[in-house]
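Entry type: protein chain
Record version: 2
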Amino acid sequence: MDAELAVLAGTAGTTLVTLLTTEAWQRVSDGVASLWRRAEPDRAEAISTELEATRADLLAARDGGDEESGRELGAEWQGRIRRLLLTHPEEAAALRRLMDELQPPTPDLPVVTQQATASGHARVYQAGRDQYIEER
């Protein structure tokens, strides 16, 4: 498996587990199940059931203050997705599209450019935000 697919599987597993406890969980579940439905139709129903069980486990862990379960479940899904991509690399493009769809929109932030020139014994202080200088 090439490194790019391994990174994709890692990112997808983490994103999946993170989003299963949000309002986007159904969209995530449907998207992941559709990957299996295309690649391994006989496993699609089991994957849907496993996603629901993972969501229940995550919610219970969150209520109990158990952060380790989230990391463990993320690793499990990373492995499942990695194995799917290993046997069905053609699903990588669909997985990338799903991950792109699930990313929250980023606001258009202004671009700030700073430039300064100092010569001799001059000092230049620049900051993108707060700056406190105490001269002695």
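Comment: Helices lie at 3-19, 25-39, 44-63, 68-87, 92-102.
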